[in-house]
Structures are given as C-alpha cells and as structure tokens.
Design a protein that fits this description.
The chain has 6 helices and 7 strands. By secondary structure, it is α/β, with parallel strands linked by helices. The chain has a 7-stranded mixed β-sheet, sandwiched between helices. α3 links the parallel β1 and β2. It starts with a helix and ends with a strand.
Length: about 190
Amino acid sequence: MTKEYWENRYLNQQVSWDAKSITTPLRAYIDQLADKETKILVPGLGHGYELLYLHKQGFKNSLGLDFTAVAFEETSKVELDFPRDKVSIGDFFQHEGEYDLILEQTFFCSIPVEQRTDYVKKMHGLLRPNGKLVGLLFDATFELATPPFGGSKDEYLALFEPYFTIEVMDRAFNSIKPRQDRELFIILKKKI
C-alpha cells in the first residue's frame, strides 16, 4: 500500500467507497461539537470532504493526512476554499502529533488486516489523554484481496478494547444508503 498504489487507485477511479461528500454520521457528530479550537486529525484524507466540512464549520486546528495529494487536489479544484494549508502528505504510521479527536472515515478499511494492531496503537499514541477516535467501521466482509477490507463488531472489540474505552460501537442509524446496515459508528476514548 504505497503512495504510488493509492495514486493509481484514485487516477483510475478505483475507490468505490468514495461517498462524494461528508457522510451523515460524521456530519451529525461534528455538528454537535462546540469547541472550535479542538485539535482534530483526519487520516486517510482522500478527497477531503471531512476536512472541508470542518473548515466551513470554523474549526481552526484540523489537519488532513494522506499518502498522496491526488484526491484532495481534485476536490480543491471544485471547492475553491478547500483548506490546502491544513493538509499533510505522508505516512500515517510515521506521523507525529497530539490530537483531541481523530475522525475515522474509510481509512481503517484501507489498511491491510495484518496492520490493524499497528493502526490501533498508533491512534492511541496520537491522541491526548481522554482524546477520542470517532467515526465509522464497515460491519461487513468483502471478498476482495484489495481495499476495502471489512470486519465485524466482535473483531473490532477485541482489537480496540486493550487501548480504548468503548463509549459507542453500534450499528449506524443514519448511514448513507449504499452503506445502510453495514457500518458501525464508534466513539472510542483513549485509555490512560
């Protein structure tokens, strides 16, 4: 899963999970956040819909992270106020920083299953004490050798519970139509 791999996927329109906008569950969660100074990371930025939405809602300390600029460059051609200065290009596993909130939207499903424990440990390390990982995980199995990679609630509980307090891990009630009954909404609080 190299930079070149993801650039080719985007250039060849091989990102079937692209919702073309911020999804309903994340928009609803962001809409209830009052502190516009919250330090937020959006890993696996892709087209950057979540980062753009945060920017439009007045969040001042949000950062998008991706391997490649291909997808968000496409969005920024249409959205002229896209916060390009709030994007970092690099490897998530090498990224350094501390965040109050990390938003998960299809990044987890892009990582090979054998790297999921590394993902969980890295998320834990990037969050400040009492920080939260919030977003969506696919609650479905996909018969593909390439992303997206799915899973189940039981798998996710076993993976996250050593590092996070599970505040919410339930079927998303407001998923977009193509993902209805196939997503779990999560709010995971960093264990100290």
